[in-house]
Amino acid sequence: MCGIYGITARDPEFINQYINKCKHRGPDGQNVWHNDIVTLGHNLLSIMADPSVSKQPWRTPKGNILTYNGEIFNYYELKKKYKNFKDTTGCDTELLAWGLDTYGLDFIDQIDSMHGFAYYDINKKEIILSRDHAGIKPVYYAETKEGLVFGSEIKGMLDKVPGSRTIDKLAMSCLAHTGINATRNTVFGNIKKLLAGETLIYDIEKKKIKKRKRIFIKPNSNSKFDKAEFRSMAHNTVKMCSIGQRKIGVFLSGGLDSSLIAHELNKLMPPALTFTNKMNPNVVTEEDFNSDASAAKKLAEIEKYNHTEVEITPKNMIEAWNDSIYFMEQPMYNQSVSMYCYTNKVLHDHNVVVTMAGDMGDEILGGYPKYWKMRKETFINWTDIIDKWLNRIKRPIKVYDKSTLRNELLKCYPADLWNPEDPVGSYMALDCVAQAPEEFFMRNDKYGMAYGMEGRFPLATKTFMQYCMDIHSNEKIGKEKYETKLLTKIAYNTKLPPEITQKIKTGWTAPIKGWIQDQQIAKDYKVDLD
After folding, report:
1. Is 475 domain-assigned?
2. Cα radius of gyration (the chain)
3. Per residue in 247-305, pLDDT tens?
4. How far is CA 235 from CA 39, 81, 241, 265, 266, in A?
5. 94 and 232 assigned to the same domain
């Protein structure tokens, strides 16, 4: 995992400043390439090959320039498929460079990856920017008088983009209505982001975006569930995501998704190295905040993982607060962000370089109670789904009216995701490209890269996502409220303990409300009640 940076101008000084601002993204090297009209930069976190042979920006076989952040998980399969590709480094950057030279944008359809990259076609004088199908890796950009400015993080481009230190009202309105900014805008004025699965082509001479391409995982809902096939697909997706030379640690929440991943990884490279948050003190309110930790510990003992319980206290959350805000860059509708930041630091302190987590499991497998509730509702068209999605928060702060947001989201998320035979599956598909990337993946990228770690999500590979979205939501959700995520529960009923398969779903959160309301805890830890 790395950082990419660029501007369509000769400006190595700016790109060097940008790289240094984001040097946490790549401790294994940094470099700048430029000619008279383009400057590209890169931070390197080497995963697949020795840093000495994976230096970027990368000159392609045809003399074009690539700066790339990500992993191609079907790297070995593509190497077998394309016999005319000459592998000299064992690095997926070399494969991507060759594929883009040879097949152009069509090669993006063939890679099963998480990525953010910029490819400079020197002869055509074009920049191609691309973000993976699930939106795991971010790419931010701005159109200025100089041309296109882009990078993996926002903080390094603020002084280059006029008006960037003003608040974008559309982004804030979406955040206020839904808790997530799913628009193309960021909250920083004039700075935008590629959406999940989006690729754009920028004409350097005309200084304009000439084309956009989009990859969607569609809710086809036309296949039947088979538990043996499901386990095989789950094992293979974890295997795909375990490539590389670096130490892997699993965020083991105690839920079904992360437990599935730890279980399958343990078959490949035992003992699995797992980490679970444990609250201290634990304040039981509407839920037991350590029920996840107890379930994870049980699984770890049965399967003999190398397991670490990460103690979460008001003290270490307060200490991590400033870092959690700085590295996140944009507001998040979640009070536990400092816990997420601190947990990533703990994994880094255990020499983990690659992390795995179960994000995307709820979206593709029907894990949220809201999906169960939606089965009783009627949806006529895609606009109904968008309207439903806009009602995620009961009493939003009104910045723009809902019709303005609806029109914007319809532009960002077209009816390609609508299946009239499976409206709930259609809503799940929207969550896949709006909720998952702009909340969970963004959080993991910011906090993982803050400590030089690459985050991977086996349930979010293109192959596994499409396999699951080919199965109708009726097979994933039962008649009773607790009957969610049935595919995993049925497939792993005898493989995982009942503490996992029968556990009521809880979120990955800290008991902050309980800590604040408990006067003794607030006094002991000097929790600010205001």
Report:
1. yes
2. 22
3. 999 999 989 999 999 999 999 999 999 999 999 998 877 778 899 999 999 999 999 99
4. 41, 22, 10, 8, 10
5. no
